[in-house]
Amino acid sequence: MSEMDIKPLNWNPDPEIGYSVTRRADGGMAYVFTDLKPATIRHWREFAIEHLLNSDRLTRNLYDLRLVPELSEQAIQYGIEVNSDPSTRNIRLAVVVASEAVRQALQEIEALTTAAGVDLAVFTDIAEAEAWLDRPLTLLV
Fold it and tell me: Where does 9-136 show beta strands of DSSP type E?
C-alpha cells in the first residue's frame, strides 16, 4: 500500500485516556491499551465508530490488550456495539491478550456479533497475531 493510499488517522493523543493508536504499514490500525477506565472506553468507541463510517476497503487491525487484566461490562457492551456495525465486515482483527479473563470476554463479544462478519482472532503472542493478519485479505470475502 503506498503512502497515497493510506487514509489519515485523525488521532489526537490525550493524557486522560489509556490507549494509543498508530497506522499500520498495511493501512490498518494498531491499538495499544494500558487501561479500560470509562474515559478510555468512551474515547475508543467514538474513535472506532468515526473510522467505521468511512470504511471502504478490507482492513487489518491489531489490538494489544496485554496490559489489561479484565474487560468491564461497559467495555464488553461497547465492543459488541462497535463489532455489530455492518462496516466491520471489512475488518480482520487480531487481539493480543495476557489474561484469560480478557480472552473469555472477547469470545463473548465475538459470539454475540458473528452476524456482522468481522474476522476476529485472539492471541497471546504478538508475532502469531501479526502472521495471522498478514494472510491474504481475499480470504475474508
Answer: 19-23, 29-33, 59-64, 91-96, 119-123
Q: Where are the beta strands (DSSP E) in 17-114?
A: 19-23, 29-33, 59-64, 91-96
**Domains observed in the chain:** 19-140 (3.30.750.24)
Please state the φ and ψ torsions of residue 124, each to the nearest 5 degrees.
-110, -10
Contact 45, 79 (CB under 8 A): no
pLDDT in tens, 78-121: 888 887 766 666 788 899 999 999 999 988 888 877 555 678 89
pLDDT tens, residue by residue, 23-42: 998 888 999 999 999 999 99
| 8 A C-beta contact, residue 122 and residue 104 | no
By the 8 A CB rule, do 23 and 31 touch? no
Q: What share of the chain is helix, strand, coil (3-state, %, to 5)?
A: 45, 20, 40
| pTM score, whole prediction | 0.86
Which residues 6+ apart lie within 8 Å of 56 measured at CB?
90
